[in-house]
Amino acid sequence: MPQFRSLSDQLCGSPEHHALVRADVVKRLVSRPERYFPEEGTYEDYCTSMAQPGKWGDNVTLQVGRCWAVRSGARQEYTWPA
Fold it and tell me: Distance between CA atoms of 1 and 9, rounded to whole angstroms?
């Protein structure tokens, strides 16, 4: 199962919310460039690429999803950020 569907499954209980999980991960990437570094290219290009449907997540997006889940206390229930 692709990464964003897997994160959605773990955080929401279903992979069907993968697009919303992707959007939230990209939002967090854009807001914290000093924390997350792309594998290659510019950071802006990396964030734009990750925002595209069909682009597979990588170790950086997995880290963002994990950090958000730990900080928010998410466990099987995804609460949408304000």
Answer: 10
Buried b (16+ CB within 10 A) or exposed e, 20-59: ebbebbbebbbeeeeebebeeeeeeebbeebeeeebebee
Reply yes or no on whether the pLDDT at 71 is more than 60: yes
Mean pLDDT of 31-52: 82
Give the pTM: 0.63
How many CB atoms sit inside 10 A of residue 8's CB? 23
- Residue 11 sits at the vertex; the CA angle it makes with 8 and 17, to the nearest 5 degrees, is 30
Domains and CATH numbers, the chain: 3-72 (3.90.70.80)
Burial class (CB in 10 A: 0-12, 13-18, 19+), 64: buried
